[in-house]
Amino acid sequence: xxxxxxxxxxxxxxxxxxxxxxxxxxxxxxxxxxxxxxxxxxxxxxxxxxxxxxxxxxxxxxxxxxxxxxxxxxxxxxxxxxxxxxxxxxxxxxxxxxxxxxxxxxxxxxxxxxxxxxxxxxxxxxxxxxxxxxxxxxxxxxxxxxxxxxxxxxxxxxxxxxxxxxxxxxxxxxxxxxxxxxxxxxxxxxxxxxxxxxxxxxxxxxxxxxxxxxxxxxxxxxxxxxxxxxxxxxxxxxxxxxxxxxxxxxxxxxxxxxxxxxxxxxxxxxxxxxxxxxxxxxxxxxxxxxxxxxxxxxxxxxxxxxxxxxxxxxxxxxxxxxxxxxxxxxxxxxxxxxxxxxxxxxxxxxxxxxxxxxxxxxxxxxxxxxxxxxxxxxxxxxxxxxxxxxxxxxxxxxxxxxxxxxxxxxxxxxxxxxxxxxxxxxxxxxxxxxxxxxxxxxxxxxx
Length: 447
Fold this sequence. Notes:
3 domains; 11-stranded mixed sheet
């Protein structure tokens, strides 16, 4: 006699997967599963088969999967199919995708998703529903594509008290910053080139405004520190206002500017922020170029660890999707209470640690002031900084490109509270010898 999970020959039946959306990542997932089927089965202990695909473009979907899977244009038909064990959501967005994921959970299906926006915004609701139903949510592909950073934070580093996580987790912005530094071009010019090469979308807003990176930072923060998803508390700045001048000056001072997603444990709470950041050029993460991603994690036991690789693309992201499918297959019959918790910590043990408002964050700063080239200007500015207990690390003075009798004054500070820096900047900006808006960037040593 065979069990329902076994075929007549006694071998466990393949788990049946329903794929919602077969675009870039969906087609990559199908191809990787097909190509590496034997290797995956040896690791998972049973086969994993995409049995059904839902996509509005039925003809294109059929061209990809052929006769290997059924193709429909209604995702709810896949969810309602009792033969489907795992639903893979690759539609994107936070509207329809949220409804479909919650329906799949309610139907008792495990879910795998690459949707960082969905989890950052609705993750608390989704994980609570999955816990109540006893199903698993796999989301390795939601952060940094093919880099297994979720697995590392949730399992590999579980013995550690994580101190901070800092990452380059958006390939579009990293490509743009690399090109601006290498070629000395302005942001608008490089953005057009990135769009032409396919590194940037026609509407690149989520990338260049830092929102995509903030979604990923929110997920990493929750896992690193055992707190709920709190995307609405994240401080988010993109790279649209970044000037080639500041990239050049940073280089002269021994730094590179990267869009860093940062989650850090602080005395009074947690810092959750995304913004352009000066990083010492000698750091490995400062040398991550082009569309590549990297994440640095600081743990109390292990010290510093670095995770590097492709953060997007069909097969790198599919690698993470399939890894989640294998994990779910291994644990499919396990007692839900003995599976790895979605956010690393047991659901009842999540902390209510607050996310600090930005004016309470402590970091170092890069300031560029366009000032009148006359005696006493530097003295007055350094006096204002001293009055606010802001210590200067370095000063650089360069002829301004804005015109004669003007100079660029570049100041690096030691760590200070952002609220204090805001007050000092307001006083400096009010000086008649400060001729343009002050440029302020944050600086992180990441040591």
